[in-house]
């Protein structure tokens, strides 16, 4: 099994990366990405720590642990810049928190994330048919 959207205690999860990954291994996962919530204020704090943990866990355990980030509640016009910054800091997977009825994400977030070519648009509840087609064209997974 594979899970590319998990959170550790570096955002709203409750486990340190090693325990999160260990629990995934015990459930049969072969690949896991740790994609904590972030914005411009904590990218440079979160990604290097998660990347270091993932590197160590992948080296020592029978799992592929991938460092990532979930860009959350950011202005649509900052998606390209923050996606590039996240990748330069070591994020292998960039997830965007999409527009949904449940959370007050900025209008235009889905399109901006797709145009920035994030890897995954999570929670895209308010996505349009046009945006879904653009996501497929840009290789963005929903």
Explained architecture:
- The chain has 142 residues and is an alpha/beta fold.
- The chain has a single domain, classed as Alpha-Beta Barrel (TIM Barrel).
- It contains five helices and six strands.
- It has helices at 17-26, 43-60, 79-88, 109-115, 129-138, and strands at 2-6, 31-34, 37-38, 64-71, 93-97, 120-122.
- Strands 1, 2, 3, 4, 5 and 6 form a six-stranded parallel β-sheet that branches.
- Helix 1 (17-26) links the parallel strand 1 (2-6) and strand 2 (31-34).
Number of helices: 5
Q: Estimate nothing, just give the exact number of structural domains.
A: 1
The succession of helices and strands, N to C, reads EHEEHEHEHEH
How much of the sequence is in beta strands? 15-25%
Structural class: alpha/beta
Q: Which consecutive residue ranges, at least 5 long each, have pLDDT under 50? A: none
* CATH C-level category: Alpha Beta
Gyration radius over CA: 15 Å
Full CATH superfamily name: Metal-dependent hydrolases
Average pLDDT figure:
97
Number of DSSP strand runs? 6
CATH architecture: Alpha-Beta Barrel
Question: What descriptive keywords fit this protein?
Answer:
alpha/beta, 142 residues, 6 strands, 39% helix, single chain, 5 helices, TIM Barrel, six-stranded parallel β-sheet
């Amino acid at each position: 099994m594979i899970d590319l959207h998990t959170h550790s205690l570096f955002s709203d999860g409750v486990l340190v990366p090693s325990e999160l990954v260990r629990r995934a291994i015990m459930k049969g996962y072969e690949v896991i990405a740790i994609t904590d919530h972030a914005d411009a204020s904590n990218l440079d704090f979160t990604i290097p720590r998660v990347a270091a943990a993932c590197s160590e866990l992948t080296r020592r355990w029978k799992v592929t642990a991938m460092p990532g980030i979930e860009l959350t509640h950011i202005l649509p016009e900052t998606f390209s810049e923050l996606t590039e910054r996240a990748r330069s800091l070591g994020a292998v997977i960039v997830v965007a928190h999409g527009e949904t009825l449940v959370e007050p994400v900025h209008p235009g977030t889905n399109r901006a994330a797709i145009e920035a070519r994030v890897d995954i648009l999570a929670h895209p509840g308010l996505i349009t048919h046009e945006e879904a087609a653009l996501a497929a064209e840009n290789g963005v997974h929903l």
